[in-house]
Fold this sequence. Notes:
Elements: H1 2-12, E1 17-21, H2 29-32, E2 40-41, E3 47-48, E4 50-51, E5 57-59, H3 76-88, E6 97-101, H4 108-116, E7 122-126, H5 130-145, E8 150-161, E9 168-169, H6 177-184, E10 188-195, H7 198-203, H8 216-223
Helix pairs in contact: 3-4
Amino acid sequence: MVTSLAATYLTREGYKVGILDGDIVGPSIPKGFNIHGNAYGDEDRLIIPMESKTGIKIVSSNMLLEHEEDPIIWRGGLISTLLKQFFTDVAWGELDYLLIDMPPGTGDVTLTAFQSLPIDGILIVTSPQDLVSLVVKKAINMAKMMNINIIGAVENMSYVLCPHCNKHIEVYGPSKLDLFAKETGLKGLAKLPLKEGTSALVDNGEIEQVQLDEILPVIEAIKGI
């Protein structure tokens, strides 16, 4: 959600944006942009990324499968290789930003990305639950150990925004972003709400129509790298 919204808002400002779906075994990016079918190669044997309605270039493992529901049953080495190929063997063209959507945790994909890709910075995405914060802190410590620049933290599903009275309903408990930022030394960038209609737009492949301006501080942080 954060990756897709960041790409959408950057594109609205006129930037050329690509998304590399790094969640190889659980790809979800194409669904939100209503992208289906298989990718193909050019005469230089480079993969041609598919494009969303607003021109966001997207590459995902789902584009390599005969059926979208087919599982990818690979060991870590193959998954890491594909991640690198999505960076080196794709005809991205000229982009202002290439956003890499990562799976949670500190597994092979994250390690490969940190070691092999020229990352300018990462966004940490958390939620109000303590269990999520525990897992996320492992990723933060991993990034710090590998000298990866952390732009800041985003709290997703921070609250439900009542469509009738605009009241903030803390369905997962009180926000912990400020405490989380203090404990980790990161900058708390945004608290993203669960908003009526957003999930339906994503399910229908229309994430580019989502209006969630709470993410604007995240966009400014990305542009500030």
